[in-house]
Amino acid sequence: MATYDLVVIGTGPGGYVCAVRAAQLGMKVAVVEKNATLGGTCLNVGCMPSKALLHASEMFEEAGHSFAKMGVSVSSPKLDLPAMMNFKQQGIDGNVKGVEFLMKKNKIDVLKGTGKILGTGKVEISADGKSQVVETKNIVIATGSDIARLKGIEIDEKRIVSSTGALSLDKVPGKLLIVGAGVIGLELGSVWHRLGAEVVVVEFLDRILPGMDGEIAKQFQRILEKQGFAFKLGAKVTAVDTSGKTLKATIEPAAGGAAETLEADVVLVCIGRVPYTDGLGLKEAGVALDPRGRVQIDPHFATSLKGVYAIGDVVAGPMLAHKAEDEGVAVAEIIAGQAGHVNYDVIPGVVYTTPEVSSVGKTEEELKQAGIGYTVGKFPFTANGRSKVNQTTDGFVKILADAKTDRVLGVHIIGREAGEMIHEACVLMEFGGSAEDLARTCHAHPTRSEAVKEAALAVGKRAIHM
């Protein structure tokens, strides 16, 4: 029987990063993976392939609509969807091979099969009708999440698809109906809209991007509508008739009322994700779950079963790859007797559309609800030199600072490369920095990041270019 210091179940960003950090700390480590490739949802059917298609579709859109006004004359671009999907696959393959390399480099054993916890210190791995049991001092559950399903609507990944199927459609749908106006729906909607699909988004709430700052969400919705998105907010899809050539979706007001029917070629269901715990044997082993089906942990990521820990999408908190990675590092350090820690107040979130949307820290709504006094500084990209000359002026930067101490509590950005710009705010907030600190930090000119400095100046009502 093989013996390890640590066995990690799942090789997504949380799992493989945890394994690497543990190996760096001198542990003998194994990872368990049930899929053919390493990397989990993120690398195979999530973050990475979607970014490849977002980039490729943006280039297609730019060539068709923006080149001419910059004095670049090209014939109308033609879509070669199989080649675009191959571009996506090359990216996936490169990243997956990168994780395989990290396992070899750090002498981490890869155990292929489905992992089941038999109790403290024992994991059973089953594959192809055979099973083996390994002994380990510690176990980390990093099994991630699965797509959430709509009752009564069966996903076949051909006409009614999840995010997985939406990344591999064999043709551009004439009409794409998206159920859910969260990050995944808006990103995938952007891909297919740029490639020619008519996109309608149905959202149960009365707003898009639940959890994001309200003002940011409103402006972003206006930008998407200008691009050609149609939204039906405060509505729900109750049924999809698949009997005809086109799908017929029944849509009802969330508050109740008369139903309407919308036709679509493809329906994309993306109403969120749920923790993945199937086959882990948690109940039998004595690992407690919370009421939402997530693995229950203490502040040190420990579950109710001695020597078993959990991280990432399978526990509470935002279902983000970078949150899982930080937790993976923290739990490896805790197991090694160090002081691993994750600052949940500074976890950025990004929507990789065009323009991008990024945020870190508190929203205005959260600060109001908590009764915290705050000041706001805003600066539009229409007043930013680099954005003006590039004619990419959609969006703005918004900084929320404590009214008494000036400490930055939240930063929200809509604009080109917003996902890159958010990180100076993250670093500032990690050090407990103030809007004044940010305002007095020299920023290179001309850059879009100057809008962040100007928004910080605007907190003190002294923006220069506005």
Q: Report the strand count.
A: 22
> Which residue ranges are poorly predicted, with pLDDT under 50 across at least 5 consecutive positions?
none
- Which outline best applies? globular
Give the class-level CATH name of the largest domain: Alpha Beta
Strand content: 25-35%
Helical fraction equals 25-40%
Per-chain topology:
Blueprint: E1 3-9, H1 13-24, E2 29-33, H2 40-45, H3 47-65, H4 81-105, E3 109-112, E4 114-119, E5 122-127, E6 130-141, E7 145-147, E8 160-161, H5 163-166, E9 175-179, H6 183-194, E10 198-203, H7 214-227, E11 230-233, E12 235-241, E13 247-253, E14 260-264, E15 266-269, E16 273-275, H8 282-285, E17 308-310, H9 321-335, E18 349-351, E19 356-361, H10 364-370, E20 374-380, H11 385-390, E21 396-402, E22 408-415, H12 418-430, H13 435-439, H14 450-459
Parallel strand pairs: 1-2, 1-6, 2-3, 6-17, 8-15, 9-10, 9-15, 10-11
Antiparallel strand pairs: 4-5, 5-6, 7-16, 12-13, 13-14, 18-19, 19-22, 20-21, 21-22
Short description:
This protein is α/β, with parallel strands linked by helices.
Fill in the keyword field for this structure.
22 strands; alpha/beta; single chain; 466 residues; FAD/NAD(P)-binding domain; five-stranded parallel beta sheet; 14 helices; Enolase-like, domain 1; seven-stranded mixed beta sheet; 3 domains
